[in-house]
Amino acid sequence: MSRLSEFVHEGLTFPVHDRGPQHGPVVVMLHGFPQDSSTWDDVAPRLHSAGLRTLAFDQRGYAPHNAPARPSAYSVSSLAADVLVMLEAAGVEHAHLLGHDWGGAIAWHLAGTTSRVDSVTVLSTPHPASLIWSFTHSRQGLSSYYMALFQLPRLPERVLAPRLHDFYIRSGLPEKQAARYADRFADPATLTGPLNWYRAMLRHRTSSPRSRVPTTYIWGNRDFALGSAAARHTAHFVRSEYRFIEVPAGHWLPETHPALVAEEVIHRVLC
User: Fold this and answer.
1) pLDDT of 1 higher than 70
2) I need a labelling partner for 43 at 20 to 30 A (CA). Which of 18, 55, 67, 154 fits?
3) How far is 261 from 75, CA to CA, in rounded Å?
4) Helical ranges in 203-270 per DSSP H
5) Nearest 5°: phi and psi at 22?
6) Which of 24, 23, 18 has the alpha carbon at shortest distance from 6?
């Protein structure tokens, strides 16, 4: 079986990093905003050492040939379908999911809608239904004000691009990754695809059913964007075995706590 280097869906080309033991259990790793598949650079080798194969790809909007300009192309159903098409292209019937931030939202959706997911580990992002619930039961709406600002056309790209490095550093991302991501998105045009995830959010309201598979949710209690109300309420949306881990950390868990993330994924997949 050959390694998967890319796949095509809806005319879009997605670059893939297919690494680790070729016949090991498969972990699909879904990055968040504004990051890319290099989010997992310090996590993946630890998974490989435990015998796991990893598939990480630059999600829709994050690579030159997979970034439609229309927000309508970024519905949750389309984003989730990208993952399933990748599994088909890789010849993988079942996989475990690891998602952070927006990647976590897609992981939650797939954990409740497809039988091809064996387990899910989500970082930072509560279940989408819990996040919505928290808007009327906590101060989460104040923390999420930027979601409304991101609905504007073109302006958020121009404002955000030159300020990304400072934003990353202030919110706790290490300098190495902050510099890499800031360089990746230095051109405002490269942020249109990532921001379209937010623009599609209000136009395509998609419910995410309860997770039907063994689930681990890791949340940093210093997260600048995602508060405790939604994090603790997430347990209501898991129908299978559930493990909630609260850590004294911020939002960028793959970069700041790769050993913990890898340990919990290994525990979820192999135990």
Assistant:
1) no
2) 67
3) 28
4) 228-233, 253-256, 258-270
5) -65, -30
6) 18
